[in-house]
Automatic annotation (TrEMBL):
Signal sequence coordinates: none
GO terms assigned for molecular function: catalytic activity
Domain of life where this protein originates: Bacteria
Protein name: PAS domain S-box-containing protein/diguanylate cyclase (GGDEF) domain-containing protein
Domain EAL stretches: 24-278
Length: 292
């Protein structure tokens, strides 16, 4: 009797996972269709130097212009791609689209390096660096250093060695790497030690909490210090208020990204925004105070 129950359980589990597999397939098919129908769009969010008042780059963030549901954010559809074949097909679209955008900006006299987020399995493909070199070679006029990547700590979780090797090759190609969401993943310090990074991004959760929470503040200060020790650039994510920016400036973090500077926006809006942006007065004053 026990045996039969066991077998039943096994059968039920199997049916459930088959349903789940079918659902994943259906989602993936839908997402692939959306991709072929040009429903995805890359928005750009500026990265600025608060001290100098300059735009140092932009991060490409995907949006889905869904025909019925409107504008969808990556949190609602990227997880469904995770681990499927679509992940690298989508990743290729992101890279190609970002390269096109770099060229559009370049042709208008705007030098703006664009950072793309690369999913772990895509980065971990053995030929990732060669593949990226090929994509870049499609744009012979591409300015060196105009494509950057962002990876999260989970991206290299198993086996840092091949990832470090890939990142070194990217560096040779002029593609620098930022470690995204720093402090929220695993083995942060090992990553800093073993990966050839250029930039660390302070996760927005710490920036959000730093004014009220001594622990978050300590982490922000710690990451800024770590970045300095390792000779990495550090950029704060999720800077939502001018006051947060001023505080970061005081702590020695000049680079920032966040809603108080600009939200992610379509390419045309970004071009327009670039023509008009000025650092908020308190940042200019903080800078003047620092240098006097
Ligand atoms: P991320 O790379 O850490 O991107 C930062 C996220 O914070 C973005 O959310 C951005 O819109 C949001 N953000 C920026 N400034 C602020 C702020 O001041 N306040 C708040 N509350 N949020 C801010 P988004 O666009 O929803 O993207 C979420 C995540 O999805 C990204 O996190 C990234 O991991 C992933 N993602 C987005 N686009 C792509 C892509 O093209 N490829 C891959 N593989 N992942 C992507
Ligand atoms: Mg990112
Ligand atoms: Mg982040
Ligand atoms: Mg994130």
């Amino acid at each position: 009797h026990a045996k039969r129950a066991g077998r039943n359980r096994f059968f039920q589990f199997d049916a459930a996972s088959e349903r789940e597999a079918q659902q994943v397939l259906a989602h993936t098919a839908l997402l692939h269709l959306a991709l072929t129908q040009n429903q995805f769009e890359l928005y750009l969010q500026p990265k600025v130097d608060m001290r100098l008042g300059t735009v140092i780059g932009a991060e490409a963030l995907v949006r889905w212009n869904h025909p019925d549901k409107g504008l969808l954010f990556p949190g609602s559809f990227l997880p469904q791609m995770h681990g499927t074949a679509l992940e690298s097909i989508f990743g290729a679209w992101v890279v190609d689209t970002a390269l096109d955008m770099v060229m559009v900006l370049h042709n208008r006299g705007l030098v703006v390096p664009i950072s793309v987020n690369i999913a772990a399995p895509h980065l971990q493909q053995a030929n990732f660096a060669d593949w990226l070199a090929q994509r870049m070679a499609c744009h012979p006029q591409l300015p060196r250093g105009s494509l950057r990547i962002e990876i999260t700590e989970t991206a290299a979780l198993y086996n840092l060695e091949p990832v470090a090797h890939t990142l070194l090759r990217l560096r040779d190609m002029g593609v620098s790497t930022a470690l995204d969401d720093f402090g929220t993943g695993y083995s942060s310090l090992t990553y800093l030690r073993r990966l050839p990074l250029e930039t660390i991004k302070i996760d927005q959760s710490f920036v959000r909490g730093m004014q009220d929470d001594a622990g978050d503040l300590a982490i922000v200060q710690g990451v800024i210090g770590l970045a300095r020790s390792f000779d990495y650039r550090v950029i704060a994510e999720g800077v939502e208020t001018v006051a947060q920016g001023s505080m970061l400036l005081q702590m020695g973090c000049d680079l920032a990204q966040g809603y108080c500077i600009a939200r992610p926006m379509p390419l045309e809006d970004f071009v327009h925004w670039m023509e008009h942006w000025q650092a908020p007065l308190p940042w200019q004053q903080a800078t003047a105070a620092l240098s006097s």
